[in-house]
């Protein structure tokens, strides 16, 4: 795990995301129960928890990939309701990186990165390509720009996915287990990219099991179980002094070997 | 090395092994025969049964084909020639019939002097399709363009096109090909105009009436583009109304005024003179071109979140698929006459095209729905997460991939539909297989010819369908996006 100690900017007090009394059900199954969460601008939060605890569902609610049934989600001053315009507005300002990359296999790397800027942001093609090359350079794969996703390794694909999200110039980035589908040798390259992003002061919400990453960049670690926030704290306190029994059990299981 | 390993647990490889070619397997014909034909008692028996069947077919059909006669004026003359050359009781094919009557198989009762018009329409079809079908490969496109230009010109000349027509044709085709090569995007507009040119060439009459229909579409499109941003769906309704008003009120008078100024007329040919492959290909191409977009819309509608739209799509698809095509054709030819106001002249070929299109579109919708369902959910989510709205996501992300997956099914549907065009015989149109063969057989000279027309028509159908099939395989190879 990278343990870089560059100055990582602190969070401001202004809220980027406000979640109030959020509840969500899948059929009769209560996935998210009374979630309250305020994310400051520039804040980086790592969400951990056992599988089925609702952590992915929570961040997928933030860009409305999942619909919530009660409570409020306000992203960058826009409340998520059934209004499609608001949803599109939020989505164009929130970037998302998925566990399985979800690159578009029929488009080249460059086209993957320029598609949304051209069609959603209405940026001229040449400008969008320049931006795309800028971010591809940043994630260190500019030479792959004209290949197709199927020709890249998992780690490279995930870095393209990060670049693709960044090309929309988002204010908030959501990561849904970005390294869980990768070979161990490729995890580092993706985490390094994410750490660099953190150094630029991006607001980040990251569902991950990479506890080293949490210690290196997170302002706050949130531990979820059974659809609820069980504990949250600074990474230092969270790992050294877990308070709830559930957290202790979880940490002993993932760090214990 | 292995000894070292057994003695100590620690082991470090000092040199990496280079890759080596696989061992030379035994190859050759004997091995192939043993493995594939004589691998066991059952397979040995089946091999001999198979050989027997092949022998039976070849020994019956072989002499019949090798005794075939190509030069004769009638069936009786054929038989006489065969009996003279191969002895009494010998059988032989009488392909002289094809040599005599090929034009009816191809053109039906289309006026002989005007054969060049369907030929030109068919040649232009490839010009219209080339920029769409071969957008990925310049080389393939040039070969297709060159071939269609040359063949169209040669055949039109052989079939007696007048000098002026040949000249105009050459200029038109060369200009169009140049447009495709220099401005591929603009040439798509020409492709969109192709149906109107083809209708004019096939049915004749004044070019201005087709031009007015086209102008109606353009008007509707312009109205929609201008108003879409402000009125949304209402703009679409307004565009439809503007188009309808144009066609009903202005198009007719304007067409006659323009025809008065510049008469661009071809000799009209009525629908009942159509027949043979001109009819089949007209219906088939129109059905193919119309059923694909309609099928896409139906497939999307069936997966829609809006219950009303979904229900309508399901009802339409299930109803059309549940009814034989012949039923729909009867509806087209008989029932519509009762429902339409008396005196309406609603062309029978147009009616058949509509029914065939609806029928193929229902199948197409299900094929495409399969492609849509095969796309991983992550693709939809990634498109959503990037802020693409429904239509953009469908157009840019979902459909390109879903259609690519569906290519084999789509082309199968096309091929099936094209062969189904022979069913128009049931509504009194002259399809090449049944109606034309019967017509020719009913003549005094060719009474008693049985297999020959079917073989000829079957061979042409096979060439056309096989061509479509090969194209679909080419396209699949072209669109492969991994491991190259």
Automatic annotation (TrEMBL), chain A:
Pfam families: ABC_tran
CDD domains on file: ABC_HisP_GlnQ
Keyword rRNA-binding set for record: no
Superkingdom assignment: Bacteria
One example GO MF annotation: ABC-type amino acid transporter activity
Keywords of this entry: ATP-binding, Nucleotide-binding, Transport
ABC transporter domain sequence ranges: 17-251
Sequence similarity: Belongs to the ABC transporter superfamily.
Protein name, per record: L-glutamine ABC transporter ATP-binding protein /L-glutamate ABC transporter ATP-binding protein /L-aspartate ABC transporter ATP-binding protein /L-asparagine ABC transporter ATP-binding protein
Protein species of origin: Paracoccus versutus
From TrEMBL, chain B:
Record-linked InterPro entries: AA_ABC_transptr_permease_3TM (IPR010065), ArtM/GltK/GlnP/TcyL/YhdX-like (IPR043429), MetI-like (IPR000515), MetI-like_sf (IPR035906)
Cell location: Cell inner membrane; Cell membrane
The keyword Transmembrane helix is assigned to this record: yes
One GO BP annotation of this record: amino acid transport
Membrane topology category: Multi-pass membrane protein
Top-rank lineage group of the source organism: Bacteria
ABC transmembrane type-1 domain location: 277-472
A single Gene Ontology CC term: ATP-binding cassette (ABC) transporter complex
Pfam families noted in UniProt: BPD_transp_1
GO molecular function terms noted in the UniProt entry: transmembrane transporter activity
Spans through the membrane: 42-65, 114-134, 146-179, 186-205, 211-227, 234-262, 274-300, 312-336, 348-368, 405-430, 450-471
Keywords, ordered alphabetically: Cell membrane, Membrane, Transmembrane, Transmembrane helix, Transport
First-listed, main subcellular location of the protein, grouped into a coarse class: membrane
Homology family: Belongs to the binding-protein-dependent transport system permease family. HisMQ subfamily.
PANTHER family listed in its UniProt record: INNER MEMBRANE AMINO-ACID ABC TRANSPORTER PERMEASE PROTEIN YHDY, MEMBRANE COMPONENT OF AMINO ACID ABC TRANSPORTER
Protein name as it appears in the record: L-glutamine ABC transporter membrane protein /L-glutamate ABC transporter membrane protein /L-aspartate ABC transporter membrane protein /L-asparagine ABC transporter membrane protein
Higher taxonomy: Bacteria, Pseudomonadati, Pseudomonadota, Alphaproteobacteria, Rhodobacterales
């Amino acid at each position: 795990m990278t343990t870089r100690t560059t100055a990582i900017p602190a969070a401001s007090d202004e809220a980027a995301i406000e979640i109030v009394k959020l509840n969500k059900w899948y059929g009769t199954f209560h996935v998210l129960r009374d979630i309250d969460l305020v994310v400051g601008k520039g804040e980086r939060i790592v969400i951990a928890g056992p599988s089925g605890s609702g952590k992915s569902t929570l961040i997928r609610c933030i860009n409305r990939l999942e619909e919530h049934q009660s409570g409020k989600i306000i992203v960058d001053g826009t409340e998520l309701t059934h209004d499609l315009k608001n949803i599109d507005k939020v989505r164009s300002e929130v970037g998302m990186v998925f566990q399985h990359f979800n690159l578009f296999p029929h488009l080249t790397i460059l086209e993957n990165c320029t598609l949304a800027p051209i069609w959603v942001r209405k940026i001229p093609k040449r400008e969008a390509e320049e931006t795309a090359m800028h971010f591809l350079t940043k994630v260190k794969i500019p030479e792959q720009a004209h290949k197709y996703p199927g020709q890249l390794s998992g780690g490279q694909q995930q870095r393209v996915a990060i670049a693709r999200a960044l090309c929309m110039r988002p204010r908030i980035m959501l990561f849904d287990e970005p390294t869980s589908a990768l070979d161990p040798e490729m995890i580092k390259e993706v985490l390094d990219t994410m750490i660099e992003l953190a150094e630029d002061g991006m607001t980040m919400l990251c569902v991950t099991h990479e506890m080293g990453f949490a210690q290196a960049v997170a302002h706050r670690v949130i531990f979820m179980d059974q659809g609820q926030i069980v504990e949250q704290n600074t990474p230092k306190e969270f790992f050294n002094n877990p308070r709830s029994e559930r957290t202790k059990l979880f940490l002993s299981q993932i760090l214990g070997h | 090395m292995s000894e070292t390993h057994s003695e100590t647990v620690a082991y470090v490889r000092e040199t990496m092994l280079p890759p080596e070619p696989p061992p030379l397997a035994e190859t050759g014909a004997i091995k192939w025969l043993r493995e594939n034909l004589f691998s066991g008692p059952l397979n040995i028996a089946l091999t001999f049964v198979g050989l027997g069947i092949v022998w039976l077919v070849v020994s019956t059909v072989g002499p019949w084909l090798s005794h075939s006669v190509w030069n004769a004026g009638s069936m009786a003359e054929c038989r006489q020639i065969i009996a003279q050359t191969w002895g009494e009781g010998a059988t032989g094919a009488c392909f002289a019939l094809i040599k005599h009557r090929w034009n009816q198989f191809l053109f039906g009762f289309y006026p002989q002097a005007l054969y060049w018009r369907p030929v030109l329409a068919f040649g232009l079809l490839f010009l219209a399709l080339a920029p769409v079908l071969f957008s990925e490969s310049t080389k393939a496109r040039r070969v297709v363009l060159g071939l269609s230009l040359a063949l169209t010109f040669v055949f039109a000349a052989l079939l007696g096109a007048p000098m002026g027509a040949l000249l105009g044709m050459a200029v038109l085709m060369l200009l169009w090909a140049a447009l495709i090569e220099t401005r591929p995007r603009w040439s798509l507009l020409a492709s969109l105009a192709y149906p109107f040119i083809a209708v004019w060439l096939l049915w004749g009459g004044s070019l201005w009436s087709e031009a007015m229909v086209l102008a109606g579409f353009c008007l509707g499109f312009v109205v929609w583009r201008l108003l879409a941003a402000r009125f949304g769906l209402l703009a679409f309704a307004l565009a439809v109304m503007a188009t309808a008003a144009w066609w009903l009120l202005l198009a007719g008078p304007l067409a006659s005024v323009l025809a008065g100024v510049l008469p661009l007329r071809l000799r009209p040919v009525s629908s009942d003179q159509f027949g043979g492959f001109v009819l089949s290909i007209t219906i088939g191409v129109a059905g193919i071109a119309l059923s694909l977009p309609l099928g896409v819309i139906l497939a999307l509608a069936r997966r829609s979140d809006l219950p009303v739209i979904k229900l309508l799509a399901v009802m339409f698809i299930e109803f059309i698929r549940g009814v034989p095509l012949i039923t729909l054709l009867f509806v087209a030819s008989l029932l519509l006459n009762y429902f339409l106001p008396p005196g309406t002249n609603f062309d029978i070929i147009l009616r058949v095209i509509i029914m065939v299109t609806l029928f193929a579109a229902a199948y197409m919708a299900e094929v495409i729905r399969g492609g849509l369902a095969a796309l991983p959910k992550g693709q939809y989510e990634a498109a959503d997460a990037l802020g693409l709205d429904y239509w953009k996501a469908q157009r840019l992300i979902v459909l390109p991939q879903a259609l690519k997956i569906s290519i084999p099914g789509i082309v199968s549907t096309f091929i099936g539909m094209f062969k189904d065009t022979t069913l128009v015989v049931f509504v009194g149109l002259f399809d090449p297989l049944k109606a034309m063969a019967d017509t020719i057989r009913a003549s005094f000279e060719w009474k008693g010819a049985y297999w020959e027309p079917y073989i000829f028509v079957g061979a042409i159908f096979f060439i056309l369908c096989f061509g479509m099939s090969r194209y679909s395989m080419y396209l699949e190879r072209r669109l492969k996006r991994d491991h190259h």
